[in-house]
Write a structure and sequence with these properties.
Beta-galactosidase, Chain A, domain 5, alpha+beta, about 20% strand, five-stranded antiparallel sheet, nine-stranded antiparallel sheet
Length: about 750
């Protein structure tokens, strides 16, 4: 491929059955606002205002409602209440609407004569392009070219341009620009008030008030290269302008739509209406060229630190950049009131909530490319600590218990009791992530100002949650580890080790703070009401918490009771591996079987590699991988890293292909309901921790590599932020270099 193609995701030829997949894959955004990759004119037979009641089923197994198209405009933090699903992100009014008609025939990709269709997402700047030839019923041929982007420079702007060139014939062409509030979120209408407006001068606006009281204001300005005579065409739920012009053979019509979107959650002063006018006025003054330049410059600065360059594998190069694009897009790094939802704001599955994915799968990427964004993700957990306290209280415990599916305020939103009640490891995962951040950045001030509150309150929860047995040890009973197919286990190895770590670090933090900064400790002790003897309780609980393995364990058990679960004849049960294993077995049977949904012990070994021998890692991989279904998108990257560490290059390469296919494969249609953003983070970890062999900052004081490049890779190159400095790492088969990015010579030049 040439260099330009290594930065493009392409759809060559339109297939209606794949449209929803590409809507998710081509999602555009800037951290503040995200828009799915839907057609500007919409799709026939794909209504967006269908009322229905979605149930809190297993998202992996449920059948989605919108089979052809699901439009989506999302602003993190704008949420509503669902009668069954609780809090959910709201699908806001459709901002992209542009329709064209010729002699009454409406341009429709399914019903019109369309040829030479192609669409592509330019990953360099997040711009989406579509080109095709439309032959109208009247015999006019039009070359149609669409371009749009969500500005990374002014995050309130959505910028669109359509060019229609007459290749043959002549006739009148009608243009209709819209802002539409006739959309639903999981079948629910969350708008309490809708106020459309349009003016003949070429502007239209739509103000909506959600049931929760949030204001959203959209303001569009239209410009056309031909005189249009715009006319208002509003409905109760839609702001619209309609205009037309006559085109001759060889004529070219250019229509530009600039839209500013503001909400009452924005931190800017002024009304939503006034601020939208200000953003739009500046945009019109700048003009198309300057707007685009500012946008591309912003993207360049982000790619400078985030890009991974691969020579020798073009498919991997494009796939990795696609994941990096969505990781960049999904998090602005500026707002600690929100985190990153499980679908990367590219769909409504998982309802816009926050999981452990953030700390375990996503955080490493941000730690080493955009540390400020990583800090804000952890500040979100600090900001929702009161919600975690309420969760603990609701369960009858002291301290703070973080939600499995967190709302904006931290309360538990998971309606499935087996996950909400038992998947408690997330509370310890957050403490692990705090220490990972501090170790990777050297930002000890974060720990002293914010982290200590989380550590102490979660330690209180753990001391209340454990059960003490007759032998004087404490246990964690009735828990679910990362493997979601076993919900009621006894002393899950992953959970218990994470909890022990969390308690140990809480004690260490208190000891250190009291010894080195007694005034700060006194302030924290008063704020948190740390009682005499409480630290000793944390210490004793950590010491006595049972681990179901030791240094002599040949195969580390997933839990104390794992051996008692039933074996599964996968060949007879799982008859179609193109579908999840969960489709072929009842939940009751699955919950008592040795069939893993995802990595559990291997995830533990990935996070605590220094505690296990190579023989233990090899034995665990050999035992657990054959009984792991990988029904979770979080699983394959972990297995790929472990396979790479074990020098199983063929298996690691296979897992790489599977990781890349989760969202990119048209056959799987994996992006239809949104991007598997945790898998994007997993792909980064597979490249950096697996193939480059970077030792985690959790356990290494210095940059250390143990590379294992896949066959055929000629070069791997990327940047790393490490404790306040930036480095460029370049690897070739048998050698690597590490350069500190301050103009000096290489600090490491190693032949393997």
């Amino acid at each position: 491929m040439n260099e330009e193609n290594l930065w493009c995701l392409k759809e060559n030829g339109y297939q209606a059955g794949l449209h929803k997949h590409y809507e998710g894959l081509f999602t555009q955004g800037n951290g503040y606002m995200h828009v799915r990759g839907s057609f500007e004119e919409g799709c026939s037979d794909a209504p967006q205002d269908e009322d229905y009641l979605r149930f809190p089923d297993n998202v992996t197994l449920e059948k989605p409602r919108h089979l052809k198209s699901k439009q989506g405009t999302y602003i993190p933090g704008i949420v509503g209440r669902h009668p069954l699903l609780k809090e959910e992100i709201i699908n806001l009014p459709y901002v992209l609407g542009l329709e064209f008609r010729s002699a009454g025939e409406r341009l429709d990709m399914d019903r019109c004569r369309i040829s030479s269709y192609r669409r592509w997402l330019d990953l360099r700047d997040g711009s989406l392009h579509r080109a095709f030839i439309w032959e109208t019923e009247e015999g006019m041929q039009l070359q149609c070219t669409y371009s749009r982007y969500i500005s990374m420079a002014d995050t309130h702007l959505c910028i669109q341009r359509v060019q229609l060139e007459v290749l043959a014939g002549e006739g009148r062409l009608e243009v209709k620009a819209t802002l539409r509030a006739d959309v639903r979120t999981n079948g629910m209408n969350h708008f309490a008030q809708i106020v459309p407006s349009a003016e003949s001068e070429g502007s239209l606006s739509l103000e909506t008030l959600t049931e929760e009281g949030n204001q959203i204001f959209m303001l569009s300005a239209l410009e056309a290269s031909e005189a249009m005579n715009w006319q208002e065409d509003n409905t109760r739920t839609m702001a619209a302008l309609r205009g037309d012009c006559r085109l001759q053979n060889g004529d070219r019509l250019t229509v530009t739509k600039l839209t500013a979107v503001t909400t009452d959650r924005d931190r800017e002063e002024g009304t939503v209406c006034d601020r939208a006018h200000e953003h739009l006025s500046r945009a019109r003054d700048l003009g198309w060229e300057q707007l685009y330049k500012r946008h591309t410059d912003s993207w360049k600065s982000k790619w400078q630190h985030a890009d991974i360059r691969i020579k020798g594998d073009d498919i991997a190069q494009v796939s990795v950049r696609a994941s990096l694009y969505h990781l960049i897009r999904a998090n602005s790094g500026q707002d600690a009131r929100v985190a990153i939802c499980a679908k990367g704001y590219a769909g409504e599955a998982y309802f816009g909530r926050y999981f452990w994915d953030t700390e375990i799968n996503l955080l490493p990427f941000y730690l080493h490319t955009n540390p400020q964004a990583a800090r804000n993700l952890l500040l979100f957990r600090y900001n929702t600590l009161d919600g975690a306290r309420r969760n603990a209280k609701n369960y009858g415990y002291k301290g703070a218990r973080y939600a499995w599916e967190s709302s904006l305020s931290g309360e538990e939103q998971c309606a499935n009791w087996q996950y909400a009640d038992h998947e408690i490891h997330i509370t310890a995962d957050i403490v692990y992530a705090i220490y990972h951040y501090v170790r990777a950045t050297g930002d000890h001030e974060f720990l002293e100002r914010y982290g200590i509150d989380i550590l102490v309150e979660t330690a209180r929860y753990w001391c209340d949650r454990v059960d003490w047995n007759r032998e004087g040890a404490c246990e964690l009973l009735g828990v679910m580890g990362p493997d979601e197919y076993l919900p009621f286990t006894r002393n899950n190895a992953f959970t218990n080790r994470m909890v022990k770590f969390s308690l140990e670090q809480t004690v260490a933090c208190l000891d250190s703070l009291q010894g080195s900064m007694p005034d700060s400790y006194a302030t924290a002790a008063e704020r948190l009401d740390i009682r005499p003897g409480e630290r000793e309780l944390f210490r004793r609980t950590a010491e006595k918490l049972r681990l179901p393995y030791d240094s002599q364990s040949e195969v580390v058990p997933q839990s104390d009771d794992f051996a008692s679960y039933a074996d599964v004849d996968f060949a007879s049960v799982w008859t179609d591996k193109s579908r999840p294993f969960g489709h072929f077995i009842s939940q009751e049977r699955n919950y008592r079987s040795k069939a893993l949904k995802q990595a559990d012990v291997l995830e533990l070994m990935l996070l605590f590699p220094q505690e296990f021998t190579r023989e233990q890692l090899k034995a665990a991989y050999a035992y657990y991988e054959p009984i792991t279904t990988h029904d979770s998108s979080l699983s394959v990257a972990v297995h790929g890293i472990v396979a790479s560490w074990l020098d199983q290059k063929e298996a690691a390469a296979d897992f790489l292909q599977r990781v890349m296919a989760i969202d990119l494969s048209p056959e799987k249609k994996g992006a239809a309901e949104g991007i598997h953003i945790a898998n994007c983070g997993g792909l980064w970890q597979l490249i950096v921790y697996g193939f480059a062999g970077l030792k985690s900052a959790m356990w290494s004081e210095t940059l250390q590599l143990e590379p294992r490049l896949p066959e055929g890779w000629e070069e791997l190159d990327f940047q790393i932020a490490w404790r306040g400095e930036r480095y460029r790492i370049t690897l070739h088969p048998g050698a690597y270099e590490i350069h500190k990015l301050d103009g000096r010579e290489a600090i490491a030049d190693t032949t393997i």
